[in-house]
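Obj: model holo form, ligand = magnesium ion.
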Amino acid sequence: RAKVLGKARYEVFDIEMHDSVVKLMQLENDLRRAIERQEFQIYYQPIVLVDTGRITGFEALIRWQHPTRGLLNPVDFISVAEETGAIVPIGYWVLSEACRQLHTWQLEFSAQPLTISVNLSSKQFSQPDLVEQIIHILHSTNLDPRSLKLEITESTIMENAESATAMLLRLRDLGIEIYLDDFGTGYSSLSSLHRFPVDVLKIDRSFINTIQTNHEKPKIVQVIMTLAQNLGMDAIAEGIETVEQRNQLKTLQCRYGQGYLFYQPVDKQTAAAIIAQDRQ
Ligand code: C2E
Ligand code: MG
Ligand code: MG
Ligand code: MG
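Output (holo structure tokens):
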């Protein structure tokens, strides 16, 4: 009897393994066609002044309108896209589309100071012509480089330390600012932070969402704020969800923020309506 159960279990395991491999291969296949089928969309989440809630710019966040699975979030496909290399053409599409869209809004709403932040994957930094690609996009969309912000993580810099730093310096020379995303999580390299060409620290949501309940968290945010000030950088708080968190951040003199309390990521039509309303 034990033997029979054991065998049954093996079969269940095999079937599950088989299913997940098939699903993964299907996903890889679907991803490869998604660009030409125009299934990707960008959602835009406003970045605001913590004090007033006024919009200073947007972060571009990719979504995938999958033919059968509905609207997918990055968590459902970005890691697969990174493993297969599909993230390179996808990343290029996001950059061009986000730059084109921001330029349109700047003209439409006479909103020249609005900025757009685009997330870059470390795979994109292994492309030797990344900087040329970005220059090309800026030219073809007519966007002022000072309107473009690139979000990278510390591990992206550390994975390609020398070449990434060189590329970041060139991007910065063009007038593009570099945001360090999810700051404070994972690969923290405080000792080399001052050597990275970074303009803004984005304080990870995990430090913001417990800022009220966990007495250590405000201190950590305070330390990050002090660090940013000493390095001549700005800070953006990610994931602000409550009025209490916002007030705490005001006290800590964190100027910029992003989170559901202000706005969720929204489609481009909604984003345009939000800009119109913000500018009244
Ligand atoms: P991220 O760059 O740290 O983006 C912030 C994430 O936090 C977004 O998730 C956003 O929807 C979510 N968020 C914003 N405010 C709040 C809040 O108040 N509460 C909570 N709980 N969440 C909030 P999303 O859109 O699912 O993106 C997840 C991650 O996927 C991003 O994290 C980024 O690392 C990656 N990603 C998104 N778009 C792209 C892209 O175009 N290229 C690459 N390479 N990565 C991308
Ligand atoms: Mg980001
Ligand atoms: Mg982030
Ligand atoms: Mg994050």
